[in-house]
Structure prediction request, 249 residues.
Amino acid sequence: MAGSALLLAIAVSGCQSRPRSERARPEKPRPEPASAPYQAETEEGLGAAVAILVDTSGSMRDKAPGDSRPKFEVAQEALEQMLDATDAFIARRPDFPIKIGLYSFSSNVRMLQPIQPYNREVVRAGLANLPRPGGGTAIGDALRQARPDLYRAGVFRKYLLVVTDGENTRGREPDEVAREIWRKSEGGVQTFFVAFDTSPEKFAFLKEVGGDVIGAGTGPDLRKALDDIYKGKILAEAIDAGEKEPVRK
Prediction:
């Protein structure tokens, strides 16, 4: 009996003398693998969310080809006219939620309007508040910043729509970000560019990640390109989506 007591005392003593660093600790959550798919932050359902990213770099101060106004003013007008398609869509399908967010990018990225149910007056006010052009062109960073907001929107269909007149000069390269978004969203986020007064070949990588790019040399070209992408691709696809999650490509 005495021997058992002695052994017990030694065991307890050993536990008490163990250094703090050697004691059992709760396991920390493991970081998400870099290749893990994106996860929605809320339950998703019927609808489409569009993040509109507008270039406000220094070159957008230049006059638009065939126009006396700077390119950023022409882009503002074209984007506002693009909203006509949303109004017409909602009139036909009031049961199908359309959510829109507005961002500008130069050397940095600015959210002008969070992704929320479409309201023309709110979007118009956001376009009116586009920053005056200046600085570099952080296209990749803009894609990267807007993407998580799409996953908070609560809808299956997710789109990035970029209007730019140049090539990336700051931050991450847009092709790297676009490929990452396509891979980790498992094809759930589609990315479209309008190359305004610049070569669309700079963004040819989009066709490898389920997206597309359309060139626009003038203001009328820009309006047509936005119409082709927004009404012809985004809203047309949304109509066909039904209530099912998009098919992975």
Summary: The chain has a mean pLDDT of 85. The first strand starts at residue 45 and ends at 55.
